[in-house]
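Protocol step 4 of 5: obtain the predicted structure for the target chain.
Materials: sequence only (see below). No template structures provided, no constraints applied. The aim of this step is simply to have a reference model before the mutagenesis design in step 5. Sequence pasted as it appears in the construct record:
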Amino acid sequence: MLLLATNEDFGLRQIECACGKSERNFREAAPYPHIQIDDFLEPEAIGALYREYAESDEWLSYNHYNEKKSGLTRLEAMGPGTQKIIRELSSLEFLAFLEKLTGIDGLIADPDLDGGGLHRILPGGYLNVHADFQSHTNRRNWSRQINLLLYLNRDWQDEWEGFLELWEPDMSAATVRIRPDYNKCVLFHTTADSLHGHPTPLKCPPSESRKSLALYYFRDEGKTLKLQPTNYMSRPEDTPVKRLLIRLDKSLVWAYSALKRYTPLGDSVMSRVLKRFSR
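Step 4 output (C-alpha cells):
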C-alpha cells in the first residue's frame, strides 16, 4: 500500500513505499510496469492546478491523423500554483521516490517539458495507441524512462470515453483501462513496448474536455542517442485504410521530430503549421 503523509513544504502528499509492496505492484504490473495513485495531490494544490488550467492563451495544436489535442509546454505561461507543483514533481525528493518505486537510477526531470506540460482534448479528440518517443528531442544523451500523468477531470462519465488504455506489446488487446478521474496519477515505465492511448474519440459535452498534466523523466546515457519519435500502432479492429494512414502519419511525425532536433524550429512554429492543415 502507499502511505500518504502531508508535508507542509509540499503541495504533494509525500509518498513513501511500505514493505516493498508498492515497488512490487509497479514492477510486476501487466501489461508493463505501472501504478495508479488516487488523491495524489493535496486538495489545495490540485484545486489551484484545476483553476489555473485554462488561463493561458499559448496552447499549441497537436492535430494530425494520429492525435487531436492541444498542449501547453512553456512553464512561464502557466499559473503560479501549476509552476510550483511542476517544480515539486521535479525535485530531488520526488526523483528519489521515483527511483525507489521503479528501480531506475539516475532519473532527471525535464526542464524543457518536451512533449509534456498541460494537455487538453476537446470533444471528438483522441490519441491513437502508441509508444512514446524514446530519446529527448534536444538533449540528445537523454533516454526517456518514466511517464507521470495527472488527471484533472471532475465527475468524468464512462460514456464520454477518454479512458487511458494500456495495450499488450503485440497489440492483441487493451488489458487495462483507466478512467481519467480528478487527482488520479498514473506512472509507468516508458519503453518501446509501453503501448497506450485513448483511440476512441471523446464523447463529452462541448463544455467539457479531457484535462491532464504530463511530466516525463529521463536518464543521461553519456552518449548521443538516435532519434526515436513516437511510434503509433494499429488496433486489431482498424481497417486497412486506417492502418495505412497511421503508417503514413508516422513518417510525418518522424519529420516533425527531426526538424525539432536538427533545426531552430520549435513546437510553436510547428503548431502553426499543423493548425493550417487541420482546418
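Step 4 remarks: Residues 240-262 form the longest helix (23 residues). Residues 167 and 173 are 6 Å apart (CA to CA).
Proceed to step 5.
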